[in-house]
Amino acid sequence: MARANKKLQLIEFKGTTLPVVSVTLHSLQSGPLARAATELFGDETFFDGDAAVLELDKIAGAESTRPVDWAALGTLFNKHGLNVIGVRGGSDELRASAAAVGLPSFAAFKRVSRAADESTASAAPVQAGPVQEVAPASVQETPPPPAQPAFTPTLVIDRPLRSGQQAYARGGDLVVLAAVNAGAEVIADGSIHIYAPLRGRALAGASGSTGARIFTTRFEAELVSIAGVYRTFDAGIPDQLAGRPVQVQLSPTADEASSHLIIESLATN
Question: What is the pTM of this model?
């Protein structure tokens, strides 16, 4: 009987998708950043070893060309549970400086809006050509219907989430029918609906959707976020919100730097 001679593969490649936290920086000075991070997260390790990419598009002026202590920045974010794996955007000097210490540059993801598509189409020149005879209406072919967008089903979680557990609704909304306990995390590219107490962290609009919202029937959260704009509650939740049904949304402002979260009670009394 012949024995199978199967060579052991020392390297295997498998497709996977990992969540990456996008951190937009308005300064690269480790001192002010450390104070800002402490105000936001306290002195505790807030994240659970998540990968992070530093967004550098907001770094301007002389700071975009001066030397950067990337090791200090990595230590700063690692203190709060984030592992910096690279950078995105910014000047050529910043990206080269980061690459020199082992932080690769990731390409920015470009979204094309429908308005941009329409303006491009309307601006396209009309090409002159031979006049063609139009067939009678009775024999004209019916144009095919427009392509429908892909449907992303809502992710429904019907069990409690314990500390350290995470649920991510990629490309759509998330509905949770049980408690999100302290230390647990729920993430959605769309909106998050929690028909139970929210005691952990909720991050909606994870892919950048500023119109996403968070709803819960009992607000006791550690952190809420819409499209990367965070708010923590280390000092406690305001009395008018604690234990009440609440919705969270991003302020409708055109200035991204001044965007903030609006958290309001939905209680009728």
Answer: 0.50
